Predict the 3D structure of the following.
Amino acid sequence: MNSLHLHLAHLDHNYKIIREKLDSKTQLIGVVKANVYGVKNQHFIKRLVALGVDYLAVAYAKEGEDLRENGIKIPILVFYPQHDELEKIIDAKLEPCLYNRNILQAFKKIIRKKKVLNYPIHIKYNTGLNRLGFSPKDTAWVIKELKNSLLRLVSVYSHLAASEETRPSSVCVNQIKNFKDIQNKHLKETGIRPKFHLLNSSGVFNYPEFQFDMVRCGIAFHGYANNREWDSDLKPVAALNSKISQIHFVKKGELVGYDNGWRAPQDSRIATLPIGHADGIGRHYGHQNGKVLINGEKAPIVGNICMDLLMVNVTSIECKEMDNATFFNEIHSAADFADSGNSISYELLSNLGPRIVRVVHNEK
């Protein structure tokens, strides 16, 4: 019915492209949060590990626990640990990012209680995104808290707010300066040398000279780097297909869908597909915004998208029931389809629901 095809050879290609932009000593963190950006597939993760990523990263502890249960042994960074997850993080041998005073002190307390020595942690600073992270003003406090503690500082990092913005970007320039100041303080005032990282996927393409010791890539492994020129170097891994369930003949002036969403301007043929907003195709793609490929031609989505179904106009397309309908693939990418709904590839991919069957093409 509905299927998401994952071409792992494209993942191999994307990994190679990213590695070519990095120094040989720069470590690569594979970000696999949010069910691997929606592909919900362990084959993707295991392929990344086999390719040679140095770390995996997830958003929350449960995601890391699931990876451990599926046999993943390499280090796993947890970006946004919550207070009620801290013991789980230790039990699963995950590495937390500590991003404010409360969570750092709470984690130190648990470590003391469990009598764990040299536990690996990461520190995040807010250099301008204003989401999570210690203020640069907290640097001296952080350094003091970590001295003679039971914690081992593995890395210090931050996140650019607009890494895809055309250079020169005053926002990014200021963040890079702030991060370098933090780096200098850590190197000057401590006797240890943690790793430093700042770049995400688009940062690798836009600011490779600031790769520091590590970089974090997620969406780029899927074939997207938030810029069409950079995207052209990559290959989309996922392709989303559906099939035509039924074709209706609608007379001029007749209405289609909930709330009279579309009125036929002429005698028309309307194809119904068995996929809807419960599967991740949001209502913002309706009303002729989103288009699907049927026999190589673009069919606009008409009216309001339903929970389980949507309708497309195939008046000018030769097709029949059970023909394939493609939402995105290597030619008409997820970024292309997302643009039509004023969205982004991240949102489109991560919203794809569990009813869509994942089909792995494990070719080399």
Observations:
- The mean pLDDT is 97.
- DSSP finds 13 helices and 19 strands in the chain.
